[in-house]
Write a structure and sequence with these properties.
CATH topology of the largest domain: Nucleotidyltransferase, domain 5
CATH class of the largest domain: Alpha Beta
Strand order of the largest sheet: 18-19-17-16-22-23-24
Oligomer: single chain
Number of domains: 2
Structural class: alpha+beta
């Protein structure tokens, strides 16, 4: 049998999957991403520890192959922005700095004031923010200049795994689009930005379209992973954009809701919009993993994280009950949340645990429960979290439609959050739109595998790949009664969020 293999390097989990050329999953393996929390908003990944975890997963999944089975290609999806510096031999000079690591905040304002917000956006499609790779590099230049001088390459997560598999330095357009150093119109590294930052464009790996063969599995990597030497390794792309590809979000009128630790909204379109602050509204614009398409990217920085935080900090009763019943704690929490009425008895939640995303970017905005009374219970808090996440996503989606001047008629949803039916029902009602869940739940993995299939020549183009592989599992249709109830809640939410930002800044001033 012939198979396609995909890797997904996520914030919380590492995944690898083997798929048939019709997109059917044969085996999927998962492990925790070995992150290191340094406190005060800083987080890193040890490069060798990450590679050991990835190679271990690959070894485990390739052991499932039988004699005569062939892996046609390998492609990688990964989080964006995170990265590390390596020397000329590919040896790490720094740890991998997480995308959400906050140390870049110290240089954002300096860059915005000196180079300019408008000019940055006009080249990169991005509004200056601490999460982007450039801000991490500027911080390193200030605090570890000797290390930067020794560096040969800056590698994002996908690029680093490509290097460990092939010995080649390569990236794709969609990952490069998240560095704030890439000219999204010319599809090349921006010499203007690099020069102003005191960097050389040679510091960055060559960028290719998604689904490009950039190397083959080396003998060393073969011993570490169980993959056959010489298997083609292809560029995948940014995890959410790979997921968009696998679900058919490659043209106008569709949007992807990718629910993970963070939640991303991806809206695809053919022509790049006018790259001005008033037009883009704080959304990120970048190159899609397929053809010459582009995407608009926004989302919630702490979506699944909000639910996980609540479960960890306040769900001990539900955890005990789940263990007794032999089910997931989230199953018990969902049952509890269903017992809370629509509107959670007047309790509202703003999910800015890691700041506010577009259209009103504000890294200093904080999460908040509002309207707490002595009769509120944990079940009300959880329902308020789900409703707040739905309202925040709806606001983001509607602003993206306005930015692009087009309406989204259907939402494709992927990720762990789709396993929460209450959340999906609430979201469909708040959006007043159907939410389609694909049959293959691991859409990011599948998207990477399909890009590998394009590189290996299995499919003529992305349209044939989708025709061969995309199937729908379930569609959440909006309940008319809930739609009416949530309209008022949504309008109230939109009025509350600016006040929460004001309060957040007052708290920040007090702390400083």
């Amino acid at each position: 049998m012939e198979y396609l293999l995909g890797l997904d390097i996520g914030t919380t989990h590492l995944k690898t999957g083997i798929f048939t050329t019709r997109g059917e999953p044969v085996a999927v393996k998962l492990a925790s991403t070995p992150s290191i929390n340094l406190g005060e908003g800083r987080a890193i990944y040890d490069p060798d520890e990450l590679w050991n975890a990835v190679s271990g997963l690959l070894t485990e999944i390739t052991s499932r192959l039988e004699s005569g089975d062939q892996v046609l290609s390998v492609a990688i999806a990964s989080m964006g922005e995170a990265g590390l510096l390596v020397d000329a031999r590919g040896k790490p000079l720094t740890p991998i700095i997480a995308w959400f690591d906050s140390r870049g905040k110290a240089v954002v304002d300096q860059w915005a004031d000196s180079f300019g917000v408008k000019r940055t956006l006009s080249i990169t499609g991005l509004t200056p923010d601490y999460i982007y790779s450039l801000m991490k590099l500027l911080w390193l230049k200030q605090h570890e200049p000797a290390v930067v001088l020794r560096a040969c390459k800056w590698l994002c997560m996908m690029d680093y795994i490509i290097y460990r598999l092939t010995g080649e330095f390569a990236t794709d357009y969609s990952i490069a689009s998240r560095t704030m150093l890439f000219d999204v119109k010319q599809r090349e590294w921006s010499s203007e930005i690099a020069e102003f930052a005191g960097l050389d464009t040679e510091l960055f790996p060559k960028a290719y379209p998604g689904g490009t063969v950039v190397g083959q599995v080396t003998e060393v990597a073969s011993h570490s992973t169980g993959l056959a030497k010489g298997v083609p390794v292809c560029t995948g792309g940014h995890d959410h954009i790979c997921g968009a590809f696998a679900t058919g979000v490659i043209g106008p009128g569709k949007a992807l809701d990718s629910l993970g630790t963070a939640e991303s909204l991806v809206v695809a379109y053919s022509n790049i919009p006018k790259l001005e602050p008033e037009a883009v509204k704080g959304f990120g614009v970048g190159c899609h993993v397929v053809s010459n398409a582009y995407y608009l990217l926004g989302g919630i920085n702490a979506s699944g994280l909000s639910v996980e935080w609540f479960s960890n900090e306040f769900g001990s009763v539900e955890q005990s009950l789940a263990e007794k019943r032999g089910v997931s704690v989230y199953d018990v929490l969902i049952e509890e949340a269903r017992l809370s009425p629509v509107g959670a008895k007047g309790l509202m939640f703003v999910p800015h645990m890691r700041g506010a995303g577009p259209p009103d970017l504000d890294p200093d905005s904080r999460a908040a429960f509002l309207g707490i009374r002595d009769y509120h219970e944990r079940r009300d808090c959880l329902r308020a979290i789900l409703e707040g996440l739905a309202c925040e996503f709806a606001f983001t989606l509607r602003e993206s439609e306005d930015a692009l001047g087009l309406a989204v008629s259907r939402i494709q949803a992927i990720g762990g959050g789709t396993k929460n039916p209450l959340w999906m029902e609430i979201k469909s009602a708040v959006l007043n739109a159907p939410i389609e869940v694909p049959a293959v739940q691991e859409s990011t993995l599948l998207g990477a595998a399909l890009l590998g299939g394009l590189g290996a020549g299995v499919y003529r183009d992305e349209h044939e790949a989708l025709a061969e592989t995309y199937r729908v599992l379930y569609t959440y249709e909006p309940d008319p009664q809930l739609v009416q109830q949530y309209e008022d809640i949504y309008q109230s939410y939109c009025k509350i969020v600016p006040l929460v930002r004001q309060i957040s800044h007052l708290i920040g001033e007090h702390q400083s």
